[in-house]
Design brief:
7-stranded mixed sheet; alpha+beta; D-Maltodextrin-Binding Protein, domain 2; globular; 35% helix
């Protein structure tokens, strides 16, 4: 996983395949989805906690299921390690985390391959293009704090909801390479064989945003991603592009001394790698939100809904902030005084216009990438 609406704003304060073997031998899921809530609504069709008879009844139903399947959530990604631990300890529900380093598309692939199995993902955390191309797989649900979420960051029926966002950045080991001050710097010979992009931009949201960042830096835009593809072609021709998906292990071992990734992922390495620094290029401010959704065929439908409630609660949102991402309810929480000041205070300061691609722009860019990316880095 290591996977926006063009908008210009003055500032923006501050997601896998389960092994095929498992798919083959996984037992059929329990008939939880066929059960009903105290109000007579099918659990798999509940659209709010009220359909369970209130939050306490939702909690009880989720505890009765006893498990939750998540997918493509690395512990270092948006503080998901701590989030999963907190949820599990709070409700006594076992969280099964499959293939942490999977991409957004692999999440969808897994749900299709595992459909009807107890191992299928209950919930998704997806990049925009993959999320909006698969809304027919999602179950509408509105969390208790749904009203706090800006309209442009959620489906009105709760089919999907943005959960957190961040900025595209460049992380680098200053003990191994010269300081990076701009996207253009990456073409210099000092970075020969050292620049890694987090994923394949035709499949992963983070990599897509990395190419968009390069496009903006080269005079392109969310409407014209070609300059970004051309930039990576030049990077490859110069021998600077490193075709290796970066992970904490490759960063810490020095295999990937320069990484293009979300600021919150690059930022986690600062505490592990002496000399690791992160910049959000001022000439190419690109932001993006991830999409949270419930699998309509979730084997644990009540737990899936309780997970959503937790993520969008003050507790869950503050845990996101501690991971260096901007929680979707940030503005409301700051006004209400429920934001963790220390966590929010560490989010990157941004000064300048920010690019967030719309779905139309993303679709157009994805088509261009499908036609040109492989050749550019081949």
């Amino acid at each position: 996983m290591i996977a926006s609406r063009i908008a210009t704003v003055s500032a923006l304060a501050v997601s896998a395949l389960v092994a095929v073997g498992l798919a083959a031998c996984a037992p059929p899921q329990k008939d939880a989805a066929g059960g009903k809530t105290d109000t007579g609504v099918k659990v798999a069709e509940a659209t709010s906690a009220a359909d369970f008879g209130g939050m306490d009844k939702l909690v009880a139903a989720a505890k009765a299921e006893g498990e939750l399947n998540v997918i493509a959530l690395p512990p270092d990604w948006a503080n998901y390690g701590a989030i999963i631990k907190a949820f599990s300890e709070k409700y006594g529900i076992k969280v099964n985390s499959a293939q942490p380093d999977g991409s957004s598309q692999e999440e969808i692939n897994a749900a299709n391959q595992q459909k009807g199995k107890s191992t299928a993902p209950d919930v998704f955390d997806l990049g925009q293009s993959v999320a909006l191309a698969n809304t027919s797989m999602f179950a509408p649900y509105k969390v208790a704090t749904f009203g706090d979420i800006p309209d442009k960051l959620k489906d009105p029926d709760g089919t999907w909801v943005n959960d957190y966002g961040g900025f595209m950045s460049i992380g680098f080991d200053s003990t191994k390479v010269p300081p990076v001050t701009s996207v253009e710097d990456l073409l210099k010979p000092e970075y020969h064989g050292k620049v890694a992009l987090n994923g394949d931009p035709t499949q992963a949201g983070a990599a897509f945003a990395g190419v968009l960042m390069a496009a903006v830096a080269q005079g392109g835009s969310a409407d014209d991603i070609a300059p970004g593809v051309e930039f990576f072609a030049k990077l490859n021709e110069a021998g600077n592009f490193l075709p290796l998906d970066p992970t904490p292990a490759t960063i810490e071992s020095g295999q990937t001394p320069v990484v293009i990734d979300w600021n919150y992922l690059n930022g986690t390495e600062s505490q592990k790698v002496p000399g690791w620094q992160v910049i959000v290029p001022h000439e190419a401010l690109v932001a993006g939100y991830y999409y949270q959704a419930i699998n309509k065929d979730a084997p644990h439908p009540a737990a899936a809904r309780l997970w959503q409630e937790f993520l969008f609660s003050d507790e869950g949102q503050n845990l996101y902030a501690k991971g260096g991402v901007r929680p979707v309810r940030a503005d409301k929480m700051i006004l209400a005084g429920s934001a963790d000041r220390a966590a929010f205070g560490q989010l990157p300061p941004i000064d300048g216009p920010v690019t967030v691609a719309s779905q139309e722009q993303t679709d157009k860019a994805n088509k261009y990438l499908a036609d040109n990316w492989a050749e550019a880095i081949g």
